[in-house]
Amino acid sequence: MLLFTPGPTPVPEELRWAMAAPAIHHRTPEFENIFANTKASLLALLGMQEVLMLASSGTGAMEACMATFCNNTALVINSGKFGERFAKIATALGRSVHEIKHEWDTPANANEVLEALGKNTNIDAVFLQACESAGGLRHPFEDIASAIKEHNPEIFVVVDCITTLGVEFIDTHNIDAVIGGSQKAFMLPPGLSIIGLSEMAVRRIEQCNVGYYFNLANELKNQRKNTTAYTPATTLIIGLAEYFQKVLIDGFYHVYHTTKARALGTQKAMQILGLQIYPKVPAIAMTTIAHEQADTLRKTLKSDFGVNVAGGQDHLKGKIFRINQMGLLPVHECAWVVNAIELTLERLQLRKFDGSANTAFLQTYYAEINKQAPGDHPKQ
Ligand SMILES: *Cc1c(COP(=O)(O)O)cnc(C)c1O
Fold it and tell me: Would you say the CB of residue 38 lies under 6 angstroms from ligand 1?
């Protein structure tokens, strides 16, 4: 079975072997060394001042950021399940919330964010996704972040990059906190979250003391010494160290380049089949297709062709399916996925199989791969 859901993603064999080694204690020079190396790789990936690793799924890091960076009113961009989650966390923590709400195929823009900030001067932090995984859309988070900082550099910008980190280059210039998670592009089991921090975010953390398990001041103090306040997710951190070993052979740029090529190839293949890409601005991390028979398609894909893709949630249940692009996916597997979709359309008597999807995928993929590589980003 090919696991092609946009999280959890398949865990490659080398990563599984690394995590199968006998357990080591976390308060030892051996583990501190692994922690230090992993932290250095994360900092290089993020191009940020500091980074924290927490033993939680991604939502834990979202909550920690809300508790730490918002004292008054949170502006939340909600174009789907994960944006909505930021608003729910804010409410649970007793923060006021102002939401910019869109249909799940529609990204936010910098103008409406500026308008909201102008109207509500109590907003002290803005929360958004780089890629909203509910519909697979990409928000123009770089433009939004830069507009916010130009308007008022004191406002914290928190970007959930759980399905963007390790997928494409992230310009962290105007971002105070970048959130990541282990089970998406890092190709690990769930249970480790990551928060990249700006200088301003570090200053805030040093001055505040909120929460207990997710007390970032406590974590920062410990993690600067390559240890953690509580027992860390040792196995996942060992897995992450192995991920960097694997990825650093060719560099991050190679991962971004091949991931983009696979995503564009898949998009083209779907369009050639007459299928509709759901989001107005698709993210690289996943390809989301709107289809009236999405669930039947998904079932046939799985039972007849061994491909597991994700469906939709809430009002998009049965209306979309989502194909993962995150991680170091072998290109032949991605080619099989588009072939399997075309075969499924034939089985459901929606279209005759003629190999169009495969052709479109390979042509687009190799055209993109053969484009001049601009070289590694200086920070990455
Ligand atoms: C997966 C995901 C999360 C994290 O969810 P958890 O289940 O807590 O790991 C957060 N945001 C986005 C955009 C995601 O795709």
Answer: no
